[in-house]
Amino acid sequence: MRRALWILAWIAVAIWSLFAWGAYGLLDVFGDYAARNAEVVTSHPETVEWLSWALVSLRSLGLIAVVVVWGAVSLLILAVPAVLGLFLGRPHSDARNRAYPIYDSRARGRDGVIPPPSNDPRRLDRR
Fold first, then answer.
1. How many other CB atoms sit within 10 Å of the CB of residue 86?
2. Which residues contact 125 (CB under 8 A, 6 or more apart)?
């Protein structure tokens, strides 16, 4: 279940990234177009320069805003499976894994083979 949540979250981030990339591209193209054609509004040179500067500044702020919003929403999307994973708890496969003994690498013999477990309760391991 957790894996499915993470897969869906990453798919959502990919779709959101495509949307944000499109918004970034459109804002860049139209902002650049508006800044280059500021003389359409007026023919006064100082006003054209000021308007062009203002439009370039707005375009830059808009591009920064798109990146910040993209990052915030992406983190929010990825936070959902992380929080839901806390509520779902540990998987039940841990109980199954406890049935098998865990051998420590220090318990290997000289030939590198792990000795079979001893069922003799009187035997004490010397380490």
1. 8
2. 107
